[in-house]
């Protein structure tokens, strides 16, 4: 992975930028008349401030350290939210910029404008969010939500996976903690808590995306309804009629896919915006949320089993996610259409 300085110092890459723009500074450097921003998470405070959007701590929750509820905070929660916002403003908005500015100056000269100024002149900002999956907050017409821009076409499951799903008695549950979570670093006690919890549901098959050590593979082999796989066709599995639930870390793309295919969630957020996404899923009534910190000690197995039982047996979760699925599907302008139309508009009328 290239760091910021490495990217800027590659003259070959910089000369190729008309076709491959990296960040706002580079788009300004090549003279692009229309600048479009993208973020892979919901709108967060620093990005909002760059567009002059108010982010009042009294009711706009911090993305990376949200309150364990919604925008309806009590006094203490509002104070904590204010402190989180203050950190966000001091660090993300100022400290990080102080590290990046010298790199920009070294690459493009002393007369290059500050990053904040460039960001304020962005025509549009596309966020990986959806209006039906957000808390109330001030917004701008420059913010375009395109969350759920998922290709709905699915492929036939490979024979081994298809046999597992088709032969499951009560259904199948898929388990994935994303690309960056190293399951091998998970404490053995936590792995065993998951496996023992899954054993509470012998009529369900669990397909777990995980790379195992030889030692762990021997342990997993003892649990006949747990099937570890290095890769799985997540979308095709989510669309399968026998898919009953999704145990996940609540990365926004995976949450969007679960909603679009109408699958309830057992949410176990790990880092970044995942806690915010998990809270939103819980508030919308489509997920049971667990704290990963509680899965290291005694009672972890029962917590997981209880959470799974609710998701699998309480019909309200499936009803709520189906309603949200219908809203996603019936939006007057889909995410892909909005992206194309707004890009064309911004290109025609640069600001």
From TrEMBL:
User: Which keywords appear in this protein's UniProt record, sorted alphabetically?
Assistant: Glycosyltransferase, Transferase
Question: Which Pfam families does this one have?
Answer: UDPGT
Q: Name one GO molecular function term.
A: glucuronosyltransferase activity
Q: What is its EC number?
A: 2.4.1.17
Q: Which SUPFAM superfamilies match?
A: UDP-Glycosyltransferase/glycogen phosphorylase
Has UniProt tagged this entry with the keyword Transferase? yes
Q: Report which reactions are catalysed by this protein.
A: glucuronate acceptor + UDP-alpha-D-glucuronate = acceptor beta-D-glucuronoside + UDP + H(+)
Which residues are listed as membrane-spanning? none
Task: Identify the stretch annotated as signal peptide in this record.
Answer: none
Domain of life (superkingdom): Eukaryota
Q: Which family does it belong to?
A: Belongs to the UDP-glycosyltransferase family.
Protein name (record): glucuronosyltransferase
Organism field: Heterodera schachtii
